[in-house]
Write a structure and sequence with these properties.
alpha/beta; 45% helix; 8 helices; three-stranded parallel β-sheet; 6 strands
């Protein structure tokens, strides 16, 4: 599942192209959110039976949607400046205890590797994303990845922990 803003920089096109590669595999891509690129991407994926667009959903609906997902997707366009960012959705995914599969460069890739909570390949690379999804499907430690995500969130992103570190100048 991908959840969040759907614009050009989010590179959802990479997910749609990976879905095309994986159309015969037991995987369905759930894309939740709205944005400037939604209509174009819906058109791009209209013939794919393994891609479902939900549009924008309320915050109250998100826990139920997250619970349905085996893993969460994070993608971002290849760009040196963007690679310095950690999209907020990564923290949300980790807080929910979900494994993450990414096609994103830089900081997010480092966090996923450090947390041991999923697989991540290069930004805009649908082939590597598809391969990482296959790896995930064949993995025997999916539950552990989710637990690792939650643990990493608690150790690194918890609001109180952040404020404590800030207060004691440990950041």
């Amino acid at each position: 599942m991908f959840a969040g803003n759907i614009g050009e920089i989010q590179s959802i096109e990479t997910i749609i192209r990976a879905a095309e590669i994986l159309k015969k595999e037991p995987v369905v891509f759930h894309i939740v959110g709205g944005g400037t690129d939604l209509d174009r991407l819906k058109d791009m994926g209209k013939d794919l039976h393994n891609v479902i667009f939900y549009g924008r959903r309320s915050l109250e609906e998100m826990p139920k949607l997250y619970a349905m997902a085996d893993a969460m997707l994070v993608t971002l366009a290849s760009d040196p400046i963007l690679s310095l960012t950690l999209p907020g959705k990564v923290q949300s995914y980790m807080a929910a205890g979900k494994p993450i599969i990414g096609a994103i460069d830089g900081e997010t890739r480092v966090v996923i590797a450090e947390a041991k909570c999923g697989f991540c390949g290069k930004a805009d690379d649908e082939t590597e994303l598809a391969e990482n999804i296959k790896k995930f499907i064949g993995s025997d430690n999916i539950l552990e990845m989710g637990k690792n995500a939650r643990r990493y969130y608690e150790e690194n992103f918890d609001k109180m922990l952040f404020m404590d570190k800030l207060e004691f100048n440990l950041i």
